[in-house]
Write a structure and sequence with these properties.
The structure holds 2 protein chains of 2 kinds. Chain A has 2 domains: 225 residues, P-loop containing nucleotide triphosphate hydrolases (Rossmann fold, 3-Layer(aba) Sandwich); 121 residues, Beta Barrel (OB fold (Dihydrolipoamide Acetyltransferase, E2P)), CATH 2.40.50.140. A 6-stranded mixed beta sheet of chain A has the order 6-7-8-3-9-10, with helices on both faces. In chain A, a hairpin with a 2-residue loop joins strand 1 and strand 2. By secondary structure, chain A is α+β, with helices and mostly antiparallel strands. The mean pLDDT of chain A is 90. In chain A, 23% of the residues lie in helices and 34% in strands. By secondary structure, chain B is mainly alpha-helical. Chain B folds into 3 domains: 203 residues, MetI-like (MetI-like fold); 34 residues; 219 residues, MetI-like fold (Orthogonal Bundle), CATH 1.10.3720. Helices cover 75% and strands 0% of the residues of chain B. Chain B contains 27 helices and no strands. The N terminus of chain B is likely disordered. Classes of the chains: A alpha+beta, B mainly alpha.
Chain lengths: 368, 605
């Protein structure tokens, strides 16, 4: 086996707790300077993966290579990784200076060097002058920055972040997302980020590992995951989606023709090979579903009765029901003088082949 | 419109705040009359002579008589050693309890709680069985050939320290555990990812955070040690004369109130000095468990505090450094294999140490059981034959049977009274804004922390004037005085975990305050109330200091009778009495514990 050349490489990593499979043999690769996010609902195994990489728990099987070094069972203090914990885990009895100096003291740096480095990193996170305070005297956002500074100060090859913004309110979260992203670009650090917040993942990541029930569901750029989901779970978890039942009537070379609800023909793209006659679902995002004006045509069309129209500001949302009882949602940019539609009106909804993705049905009870 | 105005006026009237504090008044009156006044009187007696003129005579005598100065020295020395043993041996067990799963902790806690609630007297007798010349340990040492003859394990300093640290270690453990459970477990993980070895992470992060618990535990153990007299009297050589024993002699034999008062003042002064020191170092909140509005600013303001912090930080750095070097040496002997699962040795060591402590705490009491069935005419190991003679002697002795019944009556009555006084107070103190809360709480908790012997002689003096000495009523009131703080603390802890929104929900659904209390609050906190009642009951059942003075010669409680008999000669019959008390109290504790758990499980917590 050749030595891996990635910053982080994980092979068939597995962890169980009794009969519960927390992580069912996952692979992961990260290049230097990459920002990778593990995204998934709670219990999907993303935090388990992070703790395994940090060395805080030991895997049942598999391998972890950090910076080309075999590290599967290396104790955490020898891994030289940075971890930003969900609750920040700042030492409450130490001043912020001592908190940031802690990793340097563990590495036995001389005091003069420690002072210099702490000042440097405090300037980096724009919090100079708070050295003598205790963590409890800072706001949540400031504590978050100190936790980050405590990692940055010893320049670890990879920084792991476990839902670091989970405890903050929305506005502050968005601001810190931006700051972390800028730090990542400016310092060229390699970040493995864990979150259950899909917007956060889309906003920050170079690549996303979407996780579900201890397995990796799909890997890709934010664009890949949003526009080309490979599974019903991925389509449903990221963004808003209309997922409708259909049967394959013809399939060739990534393109399929389906029989959709109310026997409507639907043209879609599909990555997986599929046979005519098989049941599938297809995804169309609300913003790709538009209310057709009289005489207007589209690749695919559905007829529905409007149930509600809500003006949200930037967009107007249309909730409608198909003849077979399925609910669909459409979203369009709000424009002055747009067609005035009332609940109860019958509308035709159109959508293009490129924005329609065929998805295989999830296998029932994939795992025991 | 008019009616609307009327309702506005109606709800516009606010009850003045002091009116909502009335549930505090019964306990306030009770403690003023039966605690503050008599203790104050005793202190007053120490500075006046028989004619009522101010005098420092008693104090001059206390500090110029060689014997008393020596007793003081011994008392402090023994208290210090007891504290050291209890805290240092208790720490690993508390640490283990704080870091295991909830399930495991619940199982292990029972083994800490049981000795905590087992009678001091019974435990002391158990040490006689274990450590005596013909005791279990000497028997084992001789049969295995480890010793040629019996070792002097008892009737000396070692015996006193073993007995006292055994009696007080559970308190140290429970206090430390309370603080340790508040320490965020992820901090140790954070320290290790930042490059700290296990030892460094423990000394630099966990240990400093657990310090307030250690200090609070040490403080309680030290203060309680100062007032000890049972263990040194029964397990000591006579040279281990403690200050509480001097007070007893002064009153019982010499009726010298003024001098006893002076000794009490000294004891009180020492207690307060220790508290002051503690407050300087750590602040009060860790002790009462009540967070007194945390004020920002430097953590330790005082001079002593700063000095302590400096010493502590140097010590911590040194310990961390030593652990690091040891760890590196071990890594050098057995290099880390990153491709193999690593076995963590430290956890095993911790379990071993903690198990030894647990065995030391939990098992001794049970040695009285087999001995109580022995035919031997004195306490010895192994037991000889099988006989119920000891039980026969116990149950046909009218003095003992009378004492037992009196103990039960006093226990149940004082527990009921303590609940009546304590529960309303606990409600007010947890749920309302009370001006001077920490002061009021301190006053309520004072009888718990003050050496009981002081309360006992103070009450004795008061009762002598009121004609309450030797009465059951006097005993009930006295025991209530020391059990009511436990009730308040227990019920406050229960209420703190109670979700008050449930009450608000009940009100919003149309229940008035009384129906809410009856149908929502009480059913939910019932297990906590039962536990509080049982604790108060067990405290009274085990109480000796107050009973010693107040029950008089004619109407003793069970502990008093056992004590009086053992001062002459420890007869095998006390093992039978001890067994009955032990099994009774143990089953009470188990019942309390299991109701608590069943309710917790049922409510899905």
């Amino acid at each position: 086996m050749t030595e891996p050349t990635h910053k982080l490489q994980i092979r068939r990593l597995r962890k169980t707790y009794g009969s519960v499979v927390a992580l069912a043999g996952a692979d992961l690769e990260m290049k230097e300077g990459e920002f990778v996010t593990l995204l998934g609902p709670s219990g999907s195994g993303k935090t388990t993966m992070l703790l395994l990489i940090a060395g805080l728990i030991q895997p049942d099987a598999g391998e972890i290579w950090i910076d080309g070094r075999q590290s599967t069972y290396m104790p955490p203090h020898k891994r030289d990784l940075g971890v930003v914990f969900q609750n920040y885990a700042l030492f409450p009895h130490m001043t912020l200076y001592e908190n940031i100096a802690f990793p340097l003291r563990m590495r036995r740096l001389p005091e003069s060097k420690i002072r210099e480095e702490v000042q440097r990193v405090l300037a980096t996170v724009k919090l100079s002058g708070v050295e003598d305070r205790l963590p409890s005297q800072l706001s949540g956002g400031q504590q978050q920055r100190i936790a980050l500074a405590r990692c940055l100060v010893y320049q670890p090859p990879i920084i792991l972040m476990d839902e670091p913004l989970g405890a903050l309110d929305k506005k502050l979260r968005q601001q810190l997302q931006l700051e972390i992203r800028q730090l990542h670009q400016r310092l060229g650090i390699t970040v493995l980020y864990v979150t259950h917040d899909q917007e956060e993942a889309l906003a920050m990541s170079d690549r996303i590992y979407l996780m579900n029930e201890g397995e990796i569901e799909q890997i890709g750029t934010p664009g890949d995951l949003y526009f080309r989901p490979r599974t019903v779970f991925a389509a449903d978890f990221l963004g808003e989606s209309n997922l409708l039942d259909a049967i394959v009537t013809a399939a060739s070379d990534g393109l399929v023709e389906l029989e959709g609800p109310d026997r409507m023909p639907v043209k879609a793209t599909m990555a997986q090979a599929i046979e005519p006659g098989q049941k599938v679902k297809f995804l169309v995002r609300p913003e790709n579903l538009r209310v057709l004006a009289a005489g207007e045509q589209a690749d695919n069309q559905l007829t529905a009765r409007l149930r509600d129209v809500i003006l949200l500001g930037q967009v107007t949302k249309y909730y409608a029901r198909l003849a077979n009882g399925t609910d669909v949602a459409a979203a369009q940019l709000t424009r002055p003088g747009q067609a005035i539609l009332e609940p109860g009106d019958e509308v035709r909804l159109g959508f293009d082949r490129e924005s329609t993705v065929g998805l295989p049905l999830p296998e029932p009870a994939r795992r025991g | 419109m008019a009616s609307k105005v009327a309702t506005n006026v109606e709800i516009g009237w606010r009850r003045p705040e002091w009116l909502s504090l009335w549930p505090l008044s019964p306990i306030a009156v009770f403690l003023t009359v039966l605690f503050v006044y008599p203790v104050g009187q005793l202190l007053w007696l120490s500075v006046v002579d028989r004619q009522g003129h101010l005098t420092g005579l008693h104090y001059v005598r206390l500090f110029t008589t060689g014997t008393y100065v020596k007793v003081l020295g011994i008392t402090f020395e023994i208290a210090l050693w007891t504290t050291l043993i209890a805290v240092l041996a208790g720490y690993p067990l508390a640490y283990l309890l704080a870091t295991v799963s909830d399930r495991t902790r619940n199982h292990l806690m029972l083994w800490v709680l049981m000795p905590f609630w087992t009678s001091f007297l019974v435990r002391t007798f158990a040490w006689l069985v274990l450590l005596g010349r013909k005791g279990a340990i000497n028997d084992w040492l001789i049969t295995t050939g480890l010793a040629e003859g019996p070792l002097p394990l008892i009737y000396n300093r070692a015996g006193v320290l073993i007995g006292m640290s055994h009696a007080l270690m559970p308190i140290a453990i429970l206090t430390m555990l309370a603080v340790m459970r508040g320490i965020d477990q992820s901090l140790s993980g954070a320290a290790s990812t930042l490059g700290a070895r296990g030892g460094q992470s423990f000394w630099r992060v966990y240990f400093p955070l657990s310090m307030p618990g250690m200090a609070a535990g040490a403080l309680l153990v030290f203060v309680l040690s100062l007032g000890f007299f049972i263990t040194p009297a029964l397990l000591g050589s006579g040279r281990e004369l403690l200050i509480a024993q001097v007070i007893i002699t002064q009153i019982e034999e010499l009726m010298n109130w003024g001098f006893a008062g002076a000794v009490s003042v000294l004891l009180l002064g020492a207690t307060l000095a220790v508290f002051f020191l503690y407050d300087q170092l750590f602040g009060r909140s860790t002790l009462t468990g009540v967070q007194v509005a945390s004020k920002p600013g430097p953590a330790r303001p005082g001079m002593i505090g700063r000095l302590g912090a400096l010493v502590a930080s140097r010590l911590i750095a040194l310990m961390g450094w030593i652990c690091d070097r040891v760890g590196e040496a071990l890594d050098w002997i057995r290099p880390i294999r990153p491709d193999r699962p690593r076995a963590t040795m430290s956890r095993g060591v911790l379990w071993t140490v903690a198990t030894v402590t647990l065995v030391y705490l939990a098992t001794p009491s049970f040695f009285v059981i087999p001995v109580s069935f022995s035919e031997a005419p004195y306490i010895q190991w192994p037991p000889v034959g099988f006989t119920l003679a000891n039980y026969g002697l116990f149950l046909t002795n009218p003095v003992y049977v009378g004492a037992m019944i009196r103990s039960l009556v006093v226990g149940l009555s004082s527990a009921a009274l303590a609940m009546l006084l304590g529960v309303p107070a606990a409600f007010v103190l947890t749920r309302q804004r009370v001006p001077g809360k920490s002061l009021i709480l301190g006053a309520i908790l004072a009888p718990m922390i003050l050496p009981h012997i002081i309360i006992a002689i103070a009450l004795f003096f008061l009762y002598a004037q009121l004609g309450l000495v030797g009465t059951t009523l006097g005993l009930i009131l006295g025991h209530t005085c020391i059990s009511v703080p436990f009730v308040v603390v227990t019920v406050m802890a229960v209420l703190k975990n109670y979700d008050e929104r449930l009450d608000q929900a009940a009100w919003s659904l149309g229940a008035n305050k009384w129906r809410t209390l009856r149908h929502v609050t009480f059913p939910l906190i019932l297990p906590g109330l039962i536990a509080a009642f049982l604790f108060a009951f067990v405290i009274s059942l085990d109480e000796l200091s107050i009973a010693l003075f107040i029950s008089g010669g004619a109407a003793p409680t069970l502990p008093k009778q056992m004590w009086v008999d053992s001062m002459l000669r420890v007869s095998p019959m006390v093992t039978a009495v001890s067994t009955v008390v032990l099994l009774f109290v143990t089953s009470l504790i188990l019942i309390a514990e299991f109701t608590r758990r069943r309710v917790e499980k049922a409510s899905g917590r």
